[in-house]
Specification:
The protein is α/β, with parallel strands linked by helices and 466 residues long. It has a domain of 308 residues. It contains 15 helices and ten strands. Strands 6-5-4-3-2-1-7-8 form an eight-stranded mixed beta sheet. The chain has a two-stranded antiparallel ribbon with strand order 9-10. Helix 5 runs parallel beside helix 6 and helix 11 packs antiparallel against helix 12. The longest helix is centred in the first third of the chain and has 25 residues. The protein is globular.
């Protein structure tokens, strides 16, 4: 099986965070708006700046009553604490596999490595999750090793430079616990995880030796050749490189040209270390031309390109400093040009450009931009979860800021009744590539249809999306 399915593991869209470019901001600023936006109060009287002081305004897109429940101080989560002497992660050493740096895999060998990783990390855990359907069986565990970031993307609220990074005790116990409950995909998230790259090196090495498919989301500024060599040597499986612009600008500092040397080395070493890399691009009102150029650059390097549409915070983010005047927010006047960009991406998808996003999801970005999407089968808190820096749990990225107590590593307390009730409200205001794909994986009719497509293609790579 080719590596397509791996290219979709960080989405929350979410997925995602400042280094992923997925948890971004959307704004509806004209008197005319969708019914869904009307219900959420997402409107401004100013055509260029959202008036947050207006009484009908709220700084989040979640239903207000649900927001109050999830932010209830009495439900405050309890951080993970060491059991006696804090645990530490083993020193990985370097190099462990010196031959990898000098040996280039053939196409056949590279695809064999991808195929085996996919089966072990995705296929078998998925099958077991169907068998143990009533248990918490995450296919993907998102480990927030860091919530600080070295960049300040104006659309992004998914970082806070006052939050302390994860300890080795929490990281080790998180990996051991995920292993015990059948998870084999570990996504390292932030903020910017590589702010403490030696820590990430330890986490990657420890998890990979336990059979985890380790995924790194990064803005690339700290992804220097020596870091790539160490992470590749330790068994890193995927690099999600978040870039929103070709040239750096104040509002969109995640740009390709400032990291060109790191980028070139990352691409070159894929066939040495066996990892997969792809570009993660967030669509804002000021980077339409950049999105197209980055798409073509990805194509020229044989890299997949993944896309997200600006989203406002699901929950209130008091630390977010660009809530007011923000040139990246999409306004109703921008809808025509964003619609045209999405149509362009769909056309490229039809032409065979590598894109993790299903074509239907690309088209659905138009609805999300306008305020709402159709309900979809979310499995967050069942087959995906996040682990915060302090070891507490949440079902998904948008709920990172919730004070609701879903438990902690080793002691989860996800309640399906509570999750189902919550999703009645949050589901239509959320746009997650990964959680959407995971949800449809538990639809038997879709699975059988998808398997039929693969059989028709004689299982030569992946055809279509679930």
């Amino acid at each position: 099986m080719k590596n397509w399915i791996r290219l979709v593991i960080e989405k929350n869209a979410f997925i995602s965070s400042s280094c992923r470019g997925t948890l971004s901001k959307r704004i509806l600023e004209k008197p005319t708006r969708s019914a869904a936006a009307e219900r959420r109060g997402l409107m401004s009287n100013n055509p260029s700046v959202r008036n947050l002081s207006a009484p009908e305004e709220q700084k989040f897109r979640l239903d207000e009553n649900l927001h109050l429940k999830l932010a209830e101080p009495a439900l405050k989560r309890k951080p993970l604490t060491p059991k006696g002497e804090p645990l530490t992660l083993p020193d990985p050493g370097f190099p462990q596999h010196p031959e990898r740096k000098t040996t280039v895999m053939s196409e056949k060998e590279y695809q064999r490595v991808q195929r085996m990783l996919t089966i072990k990390a995705w296929g078998l855990p998925y099958a077991k999750s169907r068998w143990y359907a009533k248990q918490l069986r995450p296919i993907v565990g998102y480990l927030f090793t860091e919530y600080k970031c070295n960049l300040d993307c104006h659309y992004c609220w998914a970082y806070n430079n006052t939050v302390k990074g994860m300890t080795e005790d929490t990281a080790k116990r998180s990996i051991d616990w995920l292993e015990d409950i059948g998870c084999r995909v570990l996504a390292l998230m932030g903020g910017e995880p590589l702010l403490r790259w030696p820590f990430v090196h330890k986490v990657t090495d420890y998890a990979a030796k336990k059979g985890f498919f380790v995924y790194l989301a990064t803005n690339g500024r700290l992804l220097r050749p020596k870091v790539i060599d160490r992470l590749g040597d330790s068994g890193l499986a995927v690099i999600n490189l978040a870039v929103d612009s070709v040239d750096e600008r104040p509002e969109l500092p995640k740009a390709l040209n400032p990291i060109k040397e790191n980028f070139e080395y990352m691409v070159k070493m894929q066939r040495h270390y066996g990892y997969v890399s792809f570009l993660n691009i967030n669509i804002t009102r000021i980077n339409v031309d950049d999105v197209k150029e980055l798409t073509e650059i990805g194509r020229s390097y044989n890299l997949a390109t993944d896309y997200h549409i600006n989203e406002s915070p699901m929950m209130e983010q008091q630390h977010f400093k660009h809530q007011d005047e923000n040139s990246t927010f999409i306004t109703p006047e921008d809808y025509p040009k964003i619609d045209a960009l999405i149509d362009w991406l769909i056309d490229k998808h039809d032409q065979g450009y590598k894109m993790p996003n299903p074509k239907e999801q690309l088209a659905n970005m138009k609805n999300m931009m306008r305020g709402s999407v159709e309900p979809w089968p979310c499995r967050a808190g069942q087959n995906t979860l996040i682990i915060r820096e302090d070891g507490t749990l949440a079902p998904c990225f948008p709920m990172y800021g919730a004070s609701h107590n879903w438990g902690q590593v080793e002691s989860p307390s996800f309640d399906l009744v509570q999750l189902d009730e919550m999703k009645k409200s949050c589901n239509t205001t959320c746009f997650s590539t990964l959680n959407s794909i995971v949800g449809h994986c538990y639809n038997n009719a879709r699975i059988l249809k998808w398997i039929g497509k693969q059989a028709k293609n004689r299982f030569r790579g992946v055809t279509g999306s679930i």
